[in-house]
User: Which sequence fits this backbone?
């Protein structure tokens, strides 16, 4: 058996189909790697060792028996711990849900099971997906595989770090304001937020329902395409899920993309942007130019309001969504209280972390009588203008290229006491959530400190196929995705 989670998805599928390796081999390799390196990284909250091996054995047996298997048969996928899986603890990295075992599968979990993927474990996140560094997890901080003094980004930092460190070839996360793309950029992997409505949110623990979207992480664009294909499709249990055909993303990736028009917006290259990040993104655009793409200036005049609008809309929705955690319906219940109101406040006071409380207070304020019009309603109006900026830009170009983050990965502890500075790290990713458009982050170089830098490509709604092809066009040429971190490990043998 020779295999590793660093292989790309088609190679892994080939190895599995040809019998060169079994799913049991591959899952064992991943479990060994987790045992070896995750003490240093902290990507996983829970590894489903026995269940994963059992699934692998079962898939191998079915393959042996000549059964037709799903498209991801035997490939491990790690799942962010805010996506419900029947009978598996789903904590949202919160004390509030520390003991929560959902009695049902999220739609994406059902789809992964149908695809015969192996669910290998649950990954760390910022509590309820609120944060950009994984430091808001109630249980552990995750470390960046490229430099363990630094954060992997967040909130899906565990899913990004698990792929970057070769503990699983694929993982899934959720992206409300950048939580897939930002950690992908920090960890040097590919991460994609699909169009709002492309992937069902049924069974994703809600943070901000009008912004949340589930998406894939992989070592490369091809892996992301395979996984997105498995996750996409209509689900009537999510009223915002769109009923439209899902293209075979993985099959069209390498088809030449003639006449590609790439947009560059000056609003994406502003004060605070690290010089090395800026240079890497411009160099990536030059690669597109050399491949025959036409590069055009576009303008997104309302970009400057994205962070402000997001931090009204997302906390408002969060304050409403998180009202359900009252210690009665769901979650932690305090033991020491005098009356019902006291029970609510003691339960919530004990079990929510500081950032979650901050968001609930911000959102409750923005929605309250007398402030609703001035904050929430106004934010919705500006959100519409931001969407219109994109509609106009996509009349002229197919894809907009920009940085993912203003800087490479920051140090653990560096921003945690400065919420505003932390919020600003999402300034280039938030717009896609407000506009509902798809966005992908892919490696486009390294800083002089050896930290990965991400390139963000955005496209018009439901243009994932073109977006993936454009991303693959660059990746094939630039090959940054083949670089691997040397992760500290301890010997387990
Ligand atoms: N970092 C952003 C926030 O804290 C985005 C989080 C996310 O996309 N889930 O809200």
Assistant:
């Amino acid at each position: 058996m020779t295999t590793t989670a660093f292989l790309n998805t088609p190679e892994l599928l080939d190895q599995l189909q040809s019998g060169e390796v079994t799913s049991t081999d591959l899952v064992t390799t991943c479990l060994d790697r987790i045992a070896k390196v995750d003490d240093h990284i902290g990507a996983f909250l829970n590894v489903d060792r026995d269940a994963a091996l059992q699934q692998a054995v079962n898939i191998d047996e079915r393959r042996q028996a000549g059964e037709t298997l799903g498209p991801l048969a035997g490939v491990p996928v790690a799942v962010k711990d805010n996506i419900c899986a029947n009978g598996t603890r789903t904590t949202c990295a919160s004390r509030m849900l520390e003991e929560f075992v959902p009695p049902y599968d999220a739609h994406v979990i059902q789809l992964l099971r149908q695809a015969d993927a192996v669910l290998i474990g649950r990954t760390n996140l910022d509590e309820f997906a609120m944060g950009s560094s994984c430091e808001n997890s109630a249980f552990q901080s995750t470390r960046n595989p490229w430099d363990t003094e630094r954060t992997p980004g967040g909130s899906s930092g565990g899913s990004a770090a698990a792929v970057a460190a070769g503990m699983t070839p694929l993982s899934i996360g959720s992206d409300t304001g950048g939580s897939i793309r930002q950690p992908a950029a920090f960890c040097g992997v590919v991460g994609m937020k699909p169009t709002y409505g492309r992937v069902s949110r049924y069974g994703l623990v809600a943070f901000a329902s009008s912004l949340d979207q589930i998406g894939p992480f992989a070592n490369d664009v091809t892996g992301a395409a395979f996984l997105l294909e498995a996750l996409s499709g209509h689900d009537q249990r999510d009223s915002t899920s769109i009923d439209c055909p899902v293209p075979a993303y993985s099959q069209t990736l390498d088809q030449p993309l003639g006449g590609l028009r790439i947009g560059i917006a000056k609003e994406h290259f502003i004060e605070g942007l690290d010089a090395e990040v800026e240079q890497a993104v411009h160099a990536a655009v030059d690669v597109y130019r050399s491949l025959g793409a036409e590069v055009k200036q576009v303008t997104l005049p309302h970009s400057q309001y994205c962070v402000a609008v997001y931090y009204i809309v997302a906390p408002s929705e969060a304050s409403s969504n998180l009202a359900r955690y009252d210690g009665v319906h769901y979650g932690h219940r305090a033991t020491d209280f005098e009356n019902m109101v006291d029970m609510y406040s003691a339960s919530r006071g004990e079990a929510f972390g500081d950032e979650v409380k901050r968001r609930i207070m911000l959102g409750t304020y923005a929605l309250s009588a007398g402030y609703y019009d001035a904050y929430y309603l106004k934010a919705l109006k500006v959100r519409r203008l931001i969407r219109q900026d994109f509609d106009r830009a996509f009349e002229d170009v197919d894809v907009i290229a920009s940085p993912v983050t203003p800087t490479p990965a920051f140090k653990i502890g560096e921003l945690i006491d400065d919420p505003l500075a932390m919020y600003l790290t999402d300034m280039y990713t938030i717009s896609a959530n407000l506009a509902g458009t798809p966005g992908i982050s892919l490696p486009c170089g390294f800083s002089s400190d050896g930290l990965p830098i991400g390139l963000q490509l955005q496209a018009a709604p439901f243009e994932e196929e073109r977006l993936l092809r454009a991303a693959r066009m660059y990746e094939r040429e630039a090959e940054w995705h083949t670089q691997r971190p040397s992760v500290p490990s301890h010997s387990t043998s």
